[in-house]
Amino acid sequence: MPLNVVPAEDSPLLRDGLIGVLTRFGHRVPAAVGDAGALVAAVREHSSDIVVTDVRMPPDNSDDGLRAAIALRRERPALPVLVLSQYIEQSYAAHLLDLGGDSGIGYLLKDRVGDVARFVDAVAGVAAGATVMDPEVVRQLLRRRHDPLQRLTPREREVLSLMAEGHSNASIARELFVTEAAVNKHVGSILRKLDLHVDGRGHRRVLAVLAHLRT
C-alpha cells in the first residue's frame, strides 16, 4: 500500500536519495525538507502517514529533528516516527520510547542501512505500527541495565536482539535456523526473566523490553 512519507534530512544529497528510494518502491513523497520547522509545516499540510527524520538538523543542529517529531506526535498520537540518524545516542532512543502509544517507532543508523529494500520494509513496518530498532541501538540500551540481562542465556540474547529489530517469531526461527516452537519458548523465557508480561503483539513486546531496560 503506497504511503505518504515526509523525509527530513538536511543533506541535499541524502534527502534526494531518500526521495528516490521511496518513490521507486511506490510510495509518495509530498514534501522533503531540510530543517525542523519545515518538517512540522509539511506534516501538518500533507497529513503524512509516517515521518522519517534525522536527529540533528537546522536551525540549531542539535536534536531539532527529534524534537519536531515529538511535537508532531503530541498533536497526532497515532503518527508513526522513524528516526534515521548517524549517531548512537541513548537519550534519543529514550525520547522515542517516551512517545508511547500504539503507533510505530523506529531508530535506524544511516551507516548500517546496507539493504535498500529492507529499509523500505522498515518504513512500511513502522507505518503499520511496528517497532524497529537498529541492533546497535539495542546493545547500547542493554549496557545500561546489566543485572536483569545476566539472567539471559546467549541464545536468549540473540532472540532479544532480533525481537528488537521487529522480527516475528517465525522470522527469528528462520534467522537462527531453529523451530518456531523453540523461539516461542525462548521469548517466553526472556519475558519471564525480565519480569515482563507476555504479549503476542510484536511491537508491544519490543516496547516493553526496551522500556524495562531504560528504567
Explain the overall architecture.
It is a single chain. This protein is of the alpha/beta class. The protein has two domains: 5-138, Response regulator (Rossmann fold, 3-Layer(aba) Sandwich); 145-214, Arc Repressor Mutant, subunit A (Orthogonal Bundle), CATH 1.10.10.10. Helix content is 54%, strand content 10%. The protein has eleven helices and five strands. It has helices spanning 12-24, 36-46, 64-75, 90-98, 116-127, 135-144, 146-149, 154-164, 169-176, 180-193, 202-214, and strands at 5-8, 50-53, 81-85, 105-109, 131-133. It has a five-stranded parallel β-sheet with strand order 1-2-3-4-5, with helices on both faces. Helix 9 (169-176) crosses helix 10.
Write the layout of secondary structure elements.
Layout: E1 5-8, H1 12-24, H2 36-46, E2 50-53, H3 64-75, E3 81-85, H4 90-98, E4 105-109, H5 116-127, E5 131-133, H6 135-144, H7 146-149, H8 154-164, H9 169-176, H10 180-193, H11 202-214
Parallel strand pairs: 1-2, 2-3, 3-4, 4-5
Helix pairs in contact: 2-3, 8-10, 9-10
InterPro entries: CheY-like_superfamily (IPR011006), NreC/VraR/RcsB-like_REC (IPR058245), Sig_transdc_resp-reg_receiver (IPR001789), Tscrpt_reg_LuxR_C (IPR000792), WalR-like (IPR039420), WH-like_DNA-bd_sf (IPR036388)
Keywords: DNA-binding, Phosphoprotein, Transcription, Transcription regulation
Protein name: Response regulator transcription factor
